[in-house]
């Protein structure tokens, strides 16, 4: 898991470095599960809005592994310096950068197969991020 989060931290957003299976399903970021391509696109757009996006994984707040699953609790930090495309139910078009920073707890549960993540469940504190970067009025 550390290698996958390191790849996210360094901005090397590809399936190999992130240890993502070609048939991965990612839950929790949108209303429908994301495929590999959709998840990589989501990451790229998020990195545009938050170029310094970083998962504090040295050390994780908590990491648990059992069988083929891992669960992590970490701190996710970033600075909103680019346009941010939010879910349609909040706003139909990207919002301008605020320049503000955020720091929130971040939870991820992954199921692994042959060294790759085949299923990921992400608990992203979108409301906390919106409030911390000064966009709480969209809620």
From TrEMBL:
A GO BP annotation: polyketide metabolic process
Pfam families referenced in this protein's UniProt entry, alphabetically: SnoaL
UniProt-recorded name of the protein: SnoaL-like domain-containing protein
Source organism (scientific name): Aspergillus brasiliensis (strain CBS 101740 / IMI 381727 / IBT 21946)
């Amino acid at each position: 898991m550390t290698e996958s989060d390191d790849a996210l931290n360094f901005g090397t957003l590809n399936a190999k470095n992130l240890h993502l299976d070609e048939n991965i399903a990612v839950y929790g970021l949108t209303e429908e599960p994301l495929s590999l391509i959709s998840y990589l696109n989501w990451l790229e757009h998020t990195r545009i809005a938050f170029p310094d996006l970083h998962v504090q994984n040295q050390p994780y707040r908590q990491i648990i592994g059992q069988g083929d699953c891992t669960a992590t609790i970490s701190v996710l930090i970033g600075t909103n310096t680019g346009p941010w495309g939010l879910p349609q139910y909040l706003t139909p078009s990207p919002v301008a950068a605020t320049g503000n920073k955020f720091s929130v707890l971040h939870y991820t549960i992954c199921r692994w197969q042959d060294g790759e993540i085949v299923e990921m469940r992400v608990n992203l504190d979108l409301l906390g991020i919106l409030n911390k970067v000064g966009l709480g009025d969209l809620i």
